[in-house]
Amino acid sequence: MAVMLSRTYDALIAAGAREDKARAAAEELVGYESRFAKIETDLAVIKWMLGIVVAGVASLVIKAFV
Hints:
Elements: H1 6-14, H2 19-65
């Protein structure tokens, strides 16, 4: 059995979905959750890289006018 989100599964069952469809939907959402976690990690790295580039450009601009 694959990993699934139990609260989502319970909510789908309570909403009247069939058990097999609720299980499949809950398992599919786990894949999206891991994809979002990877995207958040990539964005954090990009933010740090952008900060370093902005700091470097700012130092060059300050050096050019001082």
